[in-house]
């Protein structure tokens, strides 16, 4: 096939096409096949979208039935049976068991939409404009969410000053966070000129920023400070949520109580886009109808597949399996670090988001290339792309997990030589 038109006219802005120099044609669970019939194991899962695998058969069946019954694929904000099913199933599976009374607010398709709305709502609800965001955080590419994003390589594209953000260091260790303590003191001191914050916006596990895992204690310190100064807590669980860490939310079981939670990526299950915020009712009340709209907020296909995704969480063995596979990922990375003791590499993660910090972006890029050549898809993240992040579909079969890890180990060996 003549690929010249494709190559000349497809913008390379995201760069993924150059990282994976082939044309993919089909996919099933944790495997993608290119147009020449080469099979790749997918440890990237659409940047954390395909938690339930490519072409999940249960979702496929539900989607085919839905289409055959002339279901409504696009409904804006109007009620549909599929939206109602999704809302009640989400309540039943996620909110009710946790005693959460948050309201569900559907967004346009992307995580950036969800973060943007969360920041707007926090500002409206508190009448304040400053948002505290953290070093290495990634929250999206629209102007508000980009302002909260830390990486200057992304921020420099804004074309305008990105303001009303107070940046604090993301401290992963518990206790003794001096920056937080200094910030508390400065806020109490009128001569500091600091504005009281509307919200603290945090990824409990930073994904794009290099897989940095906040401790429960530190998250409590942040939440306590937020409460103390009358600010809201927004947890961005767009990449680490929806089962990725071995629990539905990445912060489950920690006794935390966020005011707003942003979800997207894996929520629609099938790669069918939908984003949603969970807002505490007293905060949600600050919206009025029409205050935050968007066209793609009634995606029937996403609701249908999303209900099937929720069904996975009614079976305890699913999350047990995620944790067990996460342990396998971690053990192998630890083994790789132990085999290379002088390199200062570090393993970080929880559940099925695990990473190897190589400290060297050029090296991580070589590993990515070697892995691709061997038939494994991985995506680097973190400062300068130095962290190799592993986020396979949660449904990856054992055999593919082992084979993928073997290929990764070989790729690292080859890149080290
Ligand atoms: N927040 C987090 C934690 C993310 O990982 C991402 C996407 N990588 C976003 C927000 C933005 O989502 P989207 O790309 O769908 O706008």
Automatic annotation (TrEMBL):
<dbReference type="InterPro" id="IPR015421">
    <property type="entry name" value="PyrdxlP-dep_Trfase_major"/>
</dbReference>
<dbReference type="InterPro" id="IPR005814">
    <property type="entry name" value="Aminotrans_3"/>
</dbReference>
<dbReference type="InterPro" id="IPR004637">
    <property type="entry name" value="Dat"/>
</dbReference>
<dbReference type="InterPro" id="IPR015424">
    <property type="entry name" value="PyrdxlP-dep_Trfase"/>
</dbReference>
<keyword id="KW-0032">Aminotransferase</keyword>
<keyword id="KW-0808">Transferase</keyword>
<protein>
    <recommendedName>
        <fullName>Diaminobutyrate--2-oxoglutarate transaminase</fullName>
        <ecNumber>2.6.1.76</ecNumber>
    </recommendedName>
</protein>
<comment type="pathway">
    <text>Amine and polyamine biosynthesis; ectoine biosynthesis; L-ectoine from L-aspartate 4-semialdehyde: step 1/3.</text>
</comment>
<keyword id="KW-0663">Pyridoxal phosphate</keyword>
<dbReference type="Pfam" id="PF00202">
    <property type="entry name" value="Aminotran_3"/>
</dbReference>
<dbReference type="GO" id="GO:0045303">
    <property type="term" value="F:diaminobutyrate-2-oxoglutarate transaminase activity"/>
</dbReference>
<comment type="similarity">
    <text>Belongs to the class-III pyridoxal-phosphate-dependent aminotransferase family.</text>
</comment>
<dbReference type="InterPro" id="IPR049704">
    <property type="entry name" value="Aminotrans_3_PPA_site"/>
</dbReference>
<dbReference type="InterPro" id="IPR015422">
    <property type="entry name" value="PyrdxlP-dep_Trfase_small"/>
</dbReference>
């Amino acid at each position: 096939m003549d690929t010249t038109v494709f190559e000349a006219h497809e913008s390379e802005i995201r760069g993924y096409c150059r990282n994976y120099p082939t044309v993919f044609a089909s996919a099933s669970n944790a495997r993608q096949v290119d147009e020449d019939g080469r099979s790749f194991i997918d440890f990237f899962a659409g940047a954390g979208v395909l938690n339930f695998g490519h072409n999940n058969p249960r979702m496929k069946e539900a989607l085919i039935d839905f289409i055959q019954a002339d279901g409504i694929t696009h409904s804006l904000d109007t009620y549909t049976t599929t939206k109602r099913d999704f809302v009640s199933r989400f309540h039943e599976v996620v909110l009710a068991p946790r005693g959460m009374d948050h309201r569900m607010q559907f967004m346009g398709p992307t995580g950036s939409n969800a973060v943007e709305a969360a920041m707007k709502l926090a500002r409206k609800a508190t009448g304040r404009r400053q948002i505290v965001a953290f070093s290495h955080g990634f929250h999206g590419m629209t102007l508000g969410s980009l302002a909260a994003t830390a990486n200057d390589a992304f921020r420099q594209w804004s074309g305008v000053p990105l303001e009303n953000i107070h940046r604090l260091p993301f401290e992963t260790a518990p206790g003794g966070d001096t920056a937080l303590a200094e910030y508390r003191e400065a806020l109490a001191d009128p001569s500091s000129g600091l504005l009281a914050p509307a919200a603290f916006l945090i990824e409990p596990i930073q994904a794009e920023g290099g897989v940095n895992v906040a401790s429960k204690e530190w998250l409590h310190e942040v939440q306590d400070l937020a409460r103390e100064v009358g600010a809201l807590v927004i947890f961005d669980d767009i990449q680490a949520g929806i089962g990725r860490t071995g629990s539905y939310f990445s912060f489950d079981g920690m006794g935390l109580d966020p005011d707003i939670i942003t979800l997207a990526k894996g929520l629609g299950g099938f790669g069918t886009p939908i984003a949603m915020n969970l807002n505490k009712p007293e905060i949600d009340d600050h919206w009025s109808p029409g205050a935050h709209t968007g066209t793609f907020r009634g995606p029937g296909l996403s609701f249908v597949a999303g209900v099937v995704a929720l069904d996975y969480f009614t079976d305890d063995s699913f999350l047990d399996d995620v944790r067990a596979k996460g342990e396998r990922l971690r053990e192998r990375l630890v083994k790789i670090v132990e085999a290379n003791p002088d390199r200062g590499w570090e393993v970080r993660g929880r559940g099925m988001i695990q990473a190897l910090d190589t400290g060297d972006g050029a090296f991580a890029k070589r590993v990515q290339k070697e892995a691709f050549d061997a038939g494994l898809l991985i995506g680097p993240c973190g400062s300068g792309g130095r962290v190799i992040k592993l986020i396979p579909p949660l449904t990856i079969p054992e055999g593919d997990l082992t084979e993928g890890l073997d290929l990764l180990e070989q790729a690292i060996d080859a890149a080290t030589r």
